[in-house]
Recover the amino acids of this structure.
């Protein structure tokens, strides 16, 4: 039964999170580097007022900024909204 919870798969002393789209496997918070799933990544991002990479990728589009902070994510959402709005006007 999948009710939105992480589906973790054991690989030795590490877990995989099938929906993780982060390619920074060198990061100590990456789910492949420990057995705690997404928790360390989320905790780090909250502490640093950042948004995880997977959220940026899920939002789609090209990042308009260099950072990963809340404001950078908001800029991506606004940029995507404006791009979609322009497409609608051109149709």
């Amino acid at each position: 039964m999948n009710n939105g919870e992480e589906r973790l798969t054991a690989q030795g002393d590490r877990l995989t999170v099938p929906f993780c789209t982060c390619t920074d496997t060198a990061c100590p918070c990456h789910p492949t580097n420990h057995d705690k799933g997404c928790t360390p990544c989320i905790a780090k991002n909250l502490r640093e007022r950042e948004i995880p990479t997977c959220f940026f990728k899920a939002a789609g589009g090209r990042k308009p900024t260099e950072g990963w902070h809340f404001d950078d994510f908001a800029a991506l959402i606004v940029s995507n909204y404006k791009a979609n709005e322009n497409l609608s006007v051109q149709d």
Q: What stands out?
A: Confidence is low (pLDDT under 50) at residues 1-6. The beta strands are 9-11, 14-16. The chain is about 40% helix and 5% strand.
